[in-house]
Amino acid sequence: MEWGNNQEAEQEYLHALELNDSIEPVLFDLASLYQMQKRFEEAIWLYEKLLNIYPSNRVARERLLGLYKRLGQTENAQKLIENLTRESSPGDPIRQTLGLFYLSQGRIAESIAELDLIVTTWPRDYQSRFYLAVAYEENGQPEKALEHFRMIGEETEYFINSQIRIAYILDGMEKTDEAMEVIKRAIEVDNKNIDLYLILASFFESKKEYDKALEVIKQALEYDDKNIDIIFRLGVVLDKSGDKEGCITQMRKILEINPDHADSLNYIGYTYAEEGINLDEAMDLILKALNIKPNSGFIIDSLGWVYYQKGLYDEATESLEKAFSLISDDPTIAEHLGDAYLKKSQYERSLEMYQKALNLDTQYTDRILKKIEDVKKFIEP
């Protein structure tokens, strides 16, 4: 049933329940509708009614447990878990709820124990296998996680997510080329999945193979040329490849689709600030972005850098100090703050920030070392 008109859908479900108040799909769909509408107490009542009649409905049980947790009904959640433990045996598929509950609570060993028994008994329970692999991954056992993710067939709804997980695990093991092959095969299965293209492009980007990253992004655009995420990635890769003008063009294209896209507003503004051009427009763009994302350290850094480029060093220092307080592990922000301190003749503080930037970044080591050398001339006799 379509949910476009929620009130009409609700009336149809209620009418169906008047005829037969124990129809599983109707109970489930109406509970889902109430949950979507944030009518949580009504949703809980229906999920409880459904499970009393159909105790093997795993999705209903998982949703009911999630609602108990959301509403802080700890006793009800614990009772549901205790009943499930008492009324089922290890390896029973309905105990997947237990495995997921333990996983959400960080009780990883218990989660693995429950889910492993299920997939041992029911090897084709791919949902349980997927979450078992996730549990192994969170438990710091990547090889075991890979073993189970790789057992999930491409005919299942969990295949693509399992391939994404495999790729990230391999990348973390410094097997990026192997990770890329996994994503390429996944694209062959689902060639309209934009996330897969974004991931593959990011791998090429990390290898500084920008031409190949651009090829992947353009393939994705053939399926969805209005997708903001892929257009934004195109702009970023163009920037990294040295095409600032092309980058700005893509960011402006995003603003035609969504004028309030804060990251695009900030990207254009910061790019102008970096180049020392169009500083008044850069300021307007960044302030608009900051109004949308007031606590973004990166946007606050951009604002500070515009102030710096305009020669307003007091304002620059204030903004950059705030940005660094929000994101203290970003080398660019640390370097910017060091530059601002230098302009204000605060040499000791400038040196401190340059040294922090050096510890955080190896990409621009020579440039930062030169700044450290220069600022030391003002400190050392």
Order of helices and strands: HHHHHHHHHHHHHHHHHHHHHH
Distance between the termini: 80 Å
Instruction: Indicate the multimeric state.
Output: single chain
What CATH first level of the domain at 1-87 would be assigned?
Mainly Alpha
Summarize the main sheet: none
Q: Give me the CATH architecture of the domain at 1-87, please.
A: Alpha Horseshoe
- Please name the fourth-level CATH homologous superfamily of the domain at 1-87: Tetratricopeptide repeat domain
Number of strands: 0
Calculate the mean pLDDT score and round it.
93
List the uncertain runs: none
What form results from the Cα inertia axes? elongated
Could you characterize the architecture of this molecule?
The chain has 381 residues and is mostly helical. It has a domain at 1-87: Serine Threonine Protein Phosphatase 5, Tetratricopeptide repeat, CATH 1.25.40.10. It has 22 helices and no strands. Helix 3 packs antiparallel against helix 4. The longest helix has 15 residues, at 365-379. The mean pLDDT is 93.
Architecture blueprint of SSEs:
Blueprint (H helix, E strand, L loop, with lengths): L5 H14 L4 H13 L3 H14 L4 H13 L3 H14 L8 H9 L3 H14 L4 H13 L3 H8 L9 H14 L3 H14 L4 H13 L3 H14 L4 H13 L3 H14 L4 H14 L3 H14 L4 H13 L3 H14 L4 H13 L3 H14 L4 H15 L2
Helix pairs in contact: 1-2, 2-3, 3-4, 4-5, 4-6, 6-7, 6-8, 7-8, 8-9, 9-10, 10-11, 11-12, 12-13, 12-14, 13-14, 14-15, 15-16, 16-17, 16-18, 17-18, 18-19, 19-20, 20-21, 21-22
